[in-house]
Design brief:
single chain; alpha+beta; four-stranded antiparallel β-sheet; 11 strands
Length: 166
């Protein structure tokens, strides 16, 4: 596993470019992605040696006809009703993966809440506040970025709400 601080980061993904441009402190964690692993998020947690409650997955949902991003710990799942309520909606379903990829500019398993092609409303599970840093996808499979949850919330203009379920 390779680590790079923001000062060592060159080029990078739209997510790391956005973090660098914002002047946010972050660390990049790279690992060898195994395409046969059943869970991208759990694979990331294991590869980095980080507790699954500190590694967050980025999920795209359709809330009343509009795409919304939910960011929840990989140890749990997204509560679609809670996500809808957090953005003032009534009903949420998981977005079509092809539409999610096309809208965000990232591939499934590598969707980052940062640097998306089209900025989507974002809800960060409030459990993130319990940690000094959390990890989210840096924009491709096998690449995570670690940052303060407050910085993630600020950069994505996220609403903090209890949207994860065990």
């Amino acid at each position: 596993m390779a680590k790079k601080s923001k000062k060592q980061q060159s080029g990078g993904t739209p997510a790391t470019v956005a973090l660098t441009a914002a002047g946010v402190d972050f660390t990049v964690h790279a690992y060898d992605h195994d395409p046969s692993h059943p869970s991208y998020g759990e694979e990331a947690a294991q590869a980095m040696g980080v507790s699954p409650d500190r590694v967050f997955k980025t999920l795209v949902a359709d809330v009343d006809g509009s795409l919304v991003v939910g960011v929840v710990p990989v140890a749990g799942s997204l509560d679609l009703k809670a996500l809808a309520a957090a953005v003032g909606g009534k009903r949420a379903t998981m977005a079509d993966p092809t539409l999610a990829e096309r809208t965000t500019g990232y591939v499934r398993g590598g969707i980052s809440p940062l640097g998306q092609r089209k900025k989507l409303p974002t809800v960060l599970d409030d459990s993130a506040q319990a940690h000094a840093t959390i990890c989210v996808s840096a924009g491709r499979r096998g690449l995570e970025v670690e940052l303060a949850p407050e910085d993630l919330a600020k950069l994505t203009e996220a609403v903090l709400a209890p949207i994860a379920k065990a």
